[in-house]
Amino acid sequence: MSDAHTSLEVYKLLVEEAREARRARRELSNIFLTLNLAGVGGLGLLAREQSDLNPALFAWCALALVLTCIVWRTSNAYYNKALKTKYVIISRYEQDLGHAPLTEEYQAMGGAKIMRAFTLERAMPYLFVLGYLVFFVVQAGDVDAIAAAVTDLLRRIGVN
User: Fold this and answer.
1) Phi/psi of residue 86, each to 5°?
2) Cα R_g (the chain), whole angstroms
3) Which of 10, 28, 96, 98 is 20 to 30 A from 58, alpha carbon to alpha carbon?
């Protein structure tokens, strides 16, 4: 088997692995979205069924959901890093092959700028955490604490 043929086969394998990683990231995000939507429904049911919501029970449930969001965000970051690495390797193979369709597409779409964009996929875990904080504070009746929690969260994620 020639070196060019071997390089082409490895290139095709890398492209397929990148496609699988994107699919896995999307499926994982769907699972976390479903878990959080179920959690929101559960918290809403708790709040509706109990006129005096036990703050400790809600806090533990909300904490579990916040931890789920942290795992979600960490998983997204892992897949983004893995994909970036795969595309760097694919780009090197494209240089060896003399054709660079994925690199050209990446550059045409804006390159690294597009990857840094604030996307809904990145924002969703933070939005759920913010929602849990707001819901908890509203249930506890302390509106000033909502403002402090929102300000702190926005500062932490870099929104001024």
Assistant:
1) -60, -40
2) 22
3) 28
Q: Find all residues with CB under 8 Å of 43, minimum gap 6, and list them.
A: 58, 61, 62, 65, 132, 135
The amino acid at 119: T
The count of C-alpha atoms lying within 13 angstroms of the C-alpha of 63, restricted to the half-sphere facing its C-beta, is 6
Q: Are 17 and 87 in contact (CB under 8 A)?
A: no
For the chain, what is the largest distance between any 2 Cα atoms, rounded to a whole number of angstroms?
Answer: 74
For residue 148, count other CB atoms closer than 10 A to its CB.
12
Do 69 and 36 form a contact (C-beta atoms < 8 A)? yes
Contact 45, 137 (CB under 8 A): no
Please provide the distance, in angstroms rounded to a whole number, between the alpha carbons at the two ends of the chain. 57
Amino acid at 31: I
pLDDT in tens, 103-147: 888 778 776 666 554 577 888 999 999 988 888 777 776 667 656
pTM here is: 0.72
